[in-house]
Specification:
With 309 residues, this protein is mainly alpha-helical. The chain has helices at residues 28-46, 51-64, 71-85, 89-93, 104-107, 115-136, 138-159, 171-184, 207-226, 235-267, and strands spanning 2-3, 14-19, 95-96, 166-168, 189-196, 199-206.
Length: 309
């Protein structure tokens, strides 16, 4: 998630490029989100007016307002200014911090502040979203993604009261996916490519190592910004989204496990107690329990589609 109208700079030299996981089909919700974010960015670059052009139109409309204008004229001018400003997607769909409940809590996750911002977010979305959508199903994944966008934006607003900024970008929702990924796929190997000086290499790290390190990096940057730095990146939204995803899915899995244990305990039939044989009655030998059915060999993972390896 990023503050609108601020440029993004490449700050890292370690990039995740894949995970050691096979999914069972095409993650259509993840693909749809990527396609929608890309189309919005294309519109912003090709069809929407530039912020400079919009600013000039607004200044021109303000100069047209006569001195001593009455309330009706001022109201019409404000409506015109709002209509002109809304031609920019980041203004029309971005979420203004502190504005409370709004549909823009979700729509802001589909607007980005440039191609670099978009590509970075979509890479993380593909790596985490495809695996989680495969595990949860499309409907649950879509609901969780929207909830992550809402939670991350509200977290930023709660921690930055009085700051009038507009949030755009999918990284808050993706951070929630990353927190959920840590719960569901903690031992999953993540493939990284790094650039250091003149050398380029590759290494793997488990999710339970890589994701907490990423969260610590976000916390460090958030602390540095509270000390006066300004990068234009909403690090506290990333932290809030990650913790939301981590806590929500951990709670769901704990409750589901407790429910399964209760169901198994409650439905287990009690074994009949053997009666003592009468004097002189022959004792029957104990019956052998039936042999359990043989388990089918697991399916070959190589038979599934490998989108992420």
């Amino acid at each position: 998630m990023e503050v609108a109208a601020r440029r993004v700079s490449l700050a890292g030299v370690i990039i995740p490029v894949g995970i050691n996981h096979v999914i069972r089909g095409w993650p259509w919700v993840t693909i749809g989100i990527i396609a929608m974010c890309t189309l919005v960015q294309v519109y912003s670059e090709v069809a929407a007016p530039s912020p400079e052009a919009v600013e000039q139109l607004i200044e021109h409309r303000i100069h047209e307002l006569p001195a001593g204008a009455d309330a009706a004229q001022q109201a019409r001018a404000e409506q015109d200014i709002e209509r002109i400003a809304n031609r920019i997607p980041s203004v029309r769909f971005g979420y203004r911090s502190g504005s409370g409940a709004s549909y823009r809590l979700v729509t802001s996750a589909f607007v980005h502040a440039g191609w670099l911002h978009l590509i970075g977010n979509m890479l993380f979305l593909w790596l985490t979203g495809a695996a989680l959508e495969d595990r949860w199903g499309r409907a649950r994944f879509a609901v969780f993604y929207a909830a992550g966008a809402i939670a991350s934006a509200l977290c930023f607003s709660a921690l930055h009261i009085g700051q009038d900024v507009t949030l755009v970008g999918a990284s808050g929702a993706i951070s929630a996916l990353m927190g959920a990924f840590l719960v569901c796929f903690a031992r999953m190997q993540v493939h990284f490519v790094y650039w250091l000086g003149r050398g380029i290499g590759r290494f793997d790290a488990a999710a339970y190592v890589a994701l907490p390190l990423w969260l610590g990096e976000q916390a460090l940057y958030a602390w540095l910004e509270s000390d006066g730095g300004e990068s234009g990146i909403a690090f506290t939204a990333h932290i809030g989204g990650f913790l939301f995803g981590l806590a929500t899915i951990a709670a769901v899995m704990v409750l589901a496990g407790a429910r399964e244990r209760n169901r198994a305990t409650g439905s287990r039939p009690s074994a009949p107690r053997p009666s003592a044989p009468l004097p002189g009655q022959p004792v029957e030998p104990p019956k052998r329990p039936p042999e359990p059915p043989r388990a089918e060999p697991p399916a070959d993972p190589a038979g599934g589609p490998r989108f992420l390896t």
